[in-house]
Amino acid sequence: MEKKLKKLLQNATRVAPKISKKGELFELRNGLVSPYPQTRKDAIKKTIQQMTLGKDVSSLFPDILKNIAASDVEQKKLVYLYVMNYAETHPELCILAVNTFVSDAQDTNPLVRCMAIRTMSMIRVDKILEYVEIPLRKTLQDENPYVRKTAVICVAKLFALNKELCQELGVLEDLISALEDSNPMVVANTIAALSDIYESDPTVVQLPLLIQKHVSQFLLALNECTEWARIVILGALAEYTARDSIEAEEIIDRVTPHLQHVNAAVVLASIKVLIKNLPLIQANAESPIFSKISSALVSLMSTPPEMQYVALRNIRIILQKYPQLLTRELRIFYVKFNDPLYVKLEKIDILVRLVDPSNLKQCTLLVAELKEYALEFEPEFVSRAILALSQLAVKYSETKFVRKVLDIIVELCKTRDSFQDDCLVAMCNLLRHTGSGEEDMVAQVCSLAQAWGSVDSLLQTDYAKCNYIWLLGQFPARFNNIQQKIHNFLDSFTQEESLTQISLLITVVRLHTSLPGSLLQELLNLATTSTNEVDVRDMAIMYWRCLSLEGSNDDLINQLCNSSLPEIATTLDTFSPELLETLLRELSLLSSVYYKPVATMTKFNANRNDSLKGKHLDELKFMARDEIIKNMNEDHLLDFDDDSNSAINASAANGSTLNDLNDLFDFTPAQQASPEQRPVEESMHKLSLHKNEPSQEHSKSSNTQDLLDLF
Amino acid sequence: MTSCIYFCDNKGKTILSRRYRDDIPPSAIEKFPSLLLEAEHESSIIPPCLTHNGIQYLFIQHNDIYILTMSSSLSVNVAQVFSFLYKLVDVLAEYVKAVEEESIRDNFVIIYELLDEMMDYGVPQITETKMLKQYITQKSFKLIKSAKKSKNVVRPPSELTKSVSWRPEGIVYKKNEAFLDVVESINMLISANGQVLRSEILGKVKVKSHLSGMPDLKLGLNDKGIFTSGDSGSKAEANPSKKANIELEDLKFHQCVRLSKFENEKIITFIPPDGDFELMNYRLSLPIKPLIWCDTKIQVHSQSRIEIHCRAKAQIKKKSTANNVEILIPVPEDADSPKFRYSHGSLKYVPEKSAILWRIKSFNGGKEYSFAAQLGLPSMTDADVPRVKRPIQVKFQIPYFTTSGIQVRYLKVHEPKLQYQSYPWVRYITESGDDYTIRTA
After folding, report:
1. Can you give the residue range of the structural domain that contains B312?
2. In a mutagenesis test of the A interface, which of B13, B82, B83 is the best target, namely the one with the most A β-carbons within 10 Å?
3. Nearest residue on chain A to B104, alpha-carbon basis
4. At what angle do helices A439-451 and A462-474 cross, to 10 degrees?
5. How many domains is chain A built from?
6. What is the pLDDT of residues B27-62, one digit of tens each?
7. Which of A158, A655, B32, B362 can pair with A701 through a Cys bridge, CB separation 3.0 to 4.6 Å?
8. What backbone phi and psi angles, to 5 degrees, belong to B82?
9. What ipTM was assigned to the predicted interfaces of this complex?
10. Which PANTHER family does UniProt cross-reference here (chain A) (predicted)?
């Protein structure tokens, strides 16, 4: 009894941390080696807290490590947390823990097995990776699916760290065979791991072939697994092209129920699979599958704004392929008062695309709605609404309708200050659509523009100014004092942007018969000598030549001046067919939000610090010791001044990487011949490309040096 | 795949982070605050994804924090990322109540632990709170039990990777009960002259399950698409009550519902998680008339005063009552010295929102209340300041009533082993959604 009590006391005793002059790290270290378990645990927690705050507590590594062998899983977790954090920045320290990892990987508790294998496969040191082989193989065959699902991911981690080793060990074959696993979660993680490997090196695994082999299995697993696993499996199915319409039909049947999943990402992933397979089956517009997709898309509009944004950007892509899909759901996309601005803008875009140009009632409703938007207060939103009004008018196209919209825009232009730019562009678009035949509309716009005083300061954007000058050139008879108006622009010619400059050039040449010759001369002079825009200069030279040709070139000049632009049929931009197909394949990926296919963007290449590759164990141990000693030195520094802590720590880390870099430079010449060193060379190359980063490190490390010198 | 998860404060400074892959340098996060600033500086459009130097920053905002992930490639599934981040917030909320800067700082250990379980190498893993709680438990709780725990070591529950991954075995309740809440939120946009421009009902069925064992539940609704029972499908057609059946659109189910069974047989069957969860939600876009309508006349006598007359009417059944009605009427920002005349509720001027707030505790169906207000306007005004149009916002709750008319016909509970009696309880409530607005003329 007494023994028991004693034990309890010892277990529960917590020694309160003292405030001592020797600093926090000293206290923590004392706590870590305390004879009382609870005190040790508290100390580990405190250490992790310091770590979270960004302080460098790597010098405590050996003391923390002593606590890893505990039977208390919670404590073990804490230690692993610490180790994982420093695995990245101080991989050499982890060598000290390798034996524990190996033995933990055989623990009876699956949680511990997972932690060990997860941590081990993250440490970027070859020596440790070599120890990985046996535990990894064992855990890949573990009887617990929880462990297996962790192990398959570890293969991808290992591959990212050391491709050669991964192939050598042959774990890739184990990974591929895990696709046959009876547990859907393991299958999903295997797919994720394989896609990751495939993305970094498509030659190693034949992912498309593997997917093809397992399609029916994936379809079965879909109903059995978590939402995240479903997304991964659906993603794999979207990569697969069905052999024939029967198979496509089956895939569609199996995937359709998932449109009703509560997780929006599952819904979008399902839509992607359906859209991929739709062209293969004979589905007419009335087919129920379309109404199902439509209502699934609509349901995405009641998700958080970020998700709505993704959905809206994707809907834009889908709509170009299937324009009829959502025609009946216009009202869903009406802007809500409390939508964030980025959602509002996308909604306006969708509204105009969605509206059925043969449905007058719908179009009229939308005009009223857009007019309301134009009376809101966020400037970007109002601009977009005004543009949308003109887009809608051009889309509906009928003159009476266009006239009505023009009235609205003219009214807006008069009542809302600071939106003249947008209104003018919108009005010019309308005129360009109807052509110059509609006298009353032309008169309306021109009299409005005529009334403006100092146009060059009223209009802000290049595009609006360009439109204004175009207006002058098209309908010179409707403006008084046109010479003065153009002259105002000439005065500021060099400050204008290229669109305005070009437009000015065209207009003055067009009107050269009615304007004094000096004006033309001045402009051509300016445009050939005082602009940096090559296009403007070329155009000016061309005009100059044409105009100065002697004699019988009246025809040419007339042609030049009196040609009229073709009427515009739409002001909505579209994707090219190739881009559209690519984007449809990449739905729900970030690329589909940016409308930039994955292939167009080079992957960000991290400057991987591979310097530790290929070092010997002794050397690593030596480095580990070095590192600790160095950090300990800094501990003392830390106690002096709290403010400079983080700065010193950051630069210390940088300094050490710099050292490693130096090592790297020493290393390479000797081993250049060996092909395995390629990555190192590459990373060196990249370093020289990203010049600013190393130089920063340089300056930082020299700062440290200065600080150290000071002390 | 995502590379890391960062919790940042409202300036973009890191509070806590977990890195899953090393394809992005740790220094990349330092760019985030300035990216945010830049975006803010350029325009007021800040999309939830930013790019810098080939690194993709994807983030959501919650309370006073940003939750951010980064990716090195455009091939990251952004829908999954946002969906996961929101799930993460949900899970954390179950552990720490309010997810905000302070609570994250206070609970970093448990958050690290959760981040480790919920995501591995950028692939989302287990997010079912009911199951996570089985093997990741609050510290405080553990400390008391730690003596006992040493024998009974924490292990991942075996159900975790099975097909019913959301419910542990061996749950026992003395009294087996299930509570159903049918909540409908009404979103509505009404023009100044009373025309409904857009209306939708967002409904959800929330379940609180206090049931033992592994019960199999079957829910019957009066939906046209959902058969109320297997055999009476044809009978229902002939039934005079057919009119009462409604058609729900965009049904979305919790993952415990067997989706293919619903797709093929239109039966909602499921094994529920223990405790609270949202079983399903739906959307209906039928035209509905305003439940709370208010007719507002605003007269602006520029440079002297503004007069507001408002009549509110509860257009609901006589025996129903709307509770906690709040009507927020915008007034110009420079208005002052309010004078009110009103008969019901309480009326006050809220300068920080530039609005008048009219609160009515309980508003009986068919009743009509009104108020008149007058506010002073400064005699000197800057004529160039554009008049900003803001809508009137209305909030309310109506218990014992659903707008769509949806009804729970039955909830059958079948537990094959224990065979107990159970008691389902059903509550209905209609409330205003986050966008119930009336435009001003």
Report:
1. 292-399
2. B83
3. A52
4. 120
5. 2
6. 899 999 998 888 888 777 888 999 888 899 999 999
7. A655
8. -65, -40
9. 0.82
10. ADAPTOR COMPLEX SUBUNIT BETA FAMILY MEMBER
